[in-house]
Design brief:
Chain lengths: 390, 148
């Protein structure tokens, strides 16, 4: 695939809005805030940027068709190439990777990439349940779609019933150390997580992601730009995307082939053989708690059927385990959908830059960013490191 | 083999809200009060309807300016066939209208009897609705300005 011809790419700047429900800021104002924060982090202005790559979830989440077309001014893209990427929930990750490819290919030196969502404009759960002609509509939202898959995992792995609650409690604890996180439940107890109403059996309300507004942006640069940066940068060690059909006979919905192939590809690019040992921090897309053990297995951090044991042992807890997962609080604590994938990628970058603040994993050198979308059928992953790829 | 094509109705009904932000929101609030607002750029020119960010430089714009409800037609086209969801139950002109004091144009309808009553550069004035709600249609239409 001509890997040797790829040029190095670095994350120079990261910018995030506070994730929340906001009725004061327009979509343009929202993306602007994240973009300016990323530029400030990179010690740049819009004038330094060659191209803008933007992503968001489906347009009917806000009811603005192709919103990127009116965001060019807000993102300083007038007179420059501006592209939109669209891969459902994984779009934040895919968007970052398309932007990365513009650097790796040598086309551009500095690219601004951004993902956003403004869920307060509507109700995405039900937007995901629009009836389609000639199809059965269960009108169950995303949780209804994923709950049978989660049950399949619970039954096949023999995981104890409360593993999902442990993930939810852990991520909400992590979120308390991230000022950008939407959900800050200072007095939350594990018992309260367990006692929460069952929403989509076996998914409790406490095990689901919130509806957030927010935007996340990154400034990516070439090797020369990375070398000249005044702050630490994150070097891209591997990037991969995979897709597969939503429905076909024999599909492994718990651990889709596309997920496993994508992981194999990205770890091979980064020269990583012992995934759990060599990765210091993971930001993975976990919109429903049980997806943490499921993805731990699918991504090869745990043997099949044993991801839940890592959760139970606290291996994925910040400050406790050897593979901290979602130190930012994850999607369970902030979910501006179109940005959620990019937040995972950006938080991975912050970890290896040593700039994650209170939720920093001490000494993190390599971090893994992950996003998935659709009916767990689109995957985007990257590995970033504090050191330049050898 | 049947030559009938499968077809099925698909009607999407879905509620949205819109956060208009500090600039578009102010413009719409102005309309409710019967006032047309523009916004000043760094070079002193005025954008109306106002935009949050400069259309060329991308700079944030903040200086709202109150304009009149009169202007002139920069360009126009005749909409001769009455269709659903149009502003009138009769043919009308769809026009780019440059409000006095503004350097850009807004799209709106001009209510005249026929295309022979329209001309580029003609003076127009807003006809306001009596019940206004903060919407571009608070201006019912423009009409030829009557000079006393």
């Amino acid at each position: 695939m001509g890997e040797t011809t790829k040029r190095n790419c670095a994350v120079i700047g990261v910018g995030q809005t506070k994730y929340q429900s906001t009725r004061e800021t327009s979509i343009a104002g929202l993306v602007r805030e994240a973009a300016l924060a990323a530029l400030a982090d990179a010690d740049m202005t819009f004038a330094d940027i060659d191209a803008v790559v933007i992503g968001k979830a489906p347009d009917f989440f806000e009811g603005v068709m192709m919103p990127e077309l009116y965001l060019a001014e807000a993102l300083g893209a007038v007179g420059k190439p501006m592209l939109r990427v669209h891969t459902a929930g994984s779009v934040g990750g895919s968007t970052a990777l398309v932007a990365t490819s513009l650097i790796q290919s040598g086309v551009h030196e500095r690219v601004l990439t951004l993902g956003f969502e403004k869920q307060s404009e509507s109700n995405a759960t039900w937007a995901l349940s629009l009836p389609q002609p000639f199809s059965v509509s269960v009108n169950a939202g995303a949780g209804g779609y994923f709950s049978p898959i989660i049950r399949q995992y619970m039954e096949s792995s023999g995981a104890p019933d409360l593993i999902g609650c442990m993930v939810a409690f852990k991520d909400r604890q992590h979120a308390l150390k991230n000022p950008h996180a939407h959900v800050h439940q200072h007095d939350l107890t594990f018992e309260a997580v367990v006692d929460a109403p069952m929403l989509w059996d076996p998914i409790r309300y406490s095990e689901t992601c919130p509806s957030s507004d927010g935007a996340c942006a990154m400034v990516l640069g070439s090797e020369a730009v990375g070398d000249a940066a005044s702050k630490p940068v994150a070097w891209v060690h591997g990037t991969s995307m995979r897709s597969e059909a939503n429905n076909f006979g024999g599909r492994d919905e718990v651990s889709p082939q596309a997920s496993r192939d994508c992981a194999d590809d990205v770890f091979a690019q980064a020269g990583i053989t012992d995934r759990r040992a060599e990765i210091d921090a993971v930001e993975m897309y976990v919109p429903f708690s049980w997806y943490e053990p499921m993805w731990l297995e699918s991504l090869g951090f745990a043997p099949k059927g044993e991801g839940w044991k890592m959760v139970e042992e606290g291996a994925t807890t910040h400050g406790q385990g050897d593979l901290p997962v979602n130190c930012s609080g994850g999607v369970l604590s902030s979910n501006p959908i179109g940005a959620s994938g990019m937040i995972r990628f950006a938080e991975a970058a912050l970890q290896v830059r040593g700039m994650a603040g209170e939720h920093q994993v001490e000494g993190a050198r390599k971090a893994f960013g992950h996003a998935y979308g659709g009916g767990a059928q689109f995957f985007a992953m990257w590995i970033v490191g504090a050191d330049k790829p050898s | 083999m049947a030559d009938e094509l499968l077809s099925a109705p698909m009607t999407i009904e879905y509620p949205f809200t819109r956060t208009t932000g500090p600039v578009i929101g102010a413009f719409l609030t102005g309309l409710r009060e019967g006032v047309v607002l523009g916004i000043k750029r760094a070079d002193g020119s005025v954008v109306c309807p106002p935009t949050e960010y400069d259309p060329e430089t991308g700079d944030a714009l903040t200086e709202m300016v109150e304009l009149t409800d009169t202007g002139h037609v920069m360009s126009w086209t005749w909409s001769g066939e009455v269709r659903e969801h149009q502003p009138f139950d009769r043919p009308y002109a769809l026009a780019l209208i440059q409000i006095d004091g503004a350097d850009t144009a807004m799209l709106h309808g001009v209510d005249v009897d026929g295309p022979e009553a329209m001309s580029t550069g003609m003076r127009v004035k807003a006809r306001w609705r009596s019940e206004r709600e903060g919407h571009i249609r608070d201006i019912a239409c423009f009409e030829p300005e009557v000079t006393p």
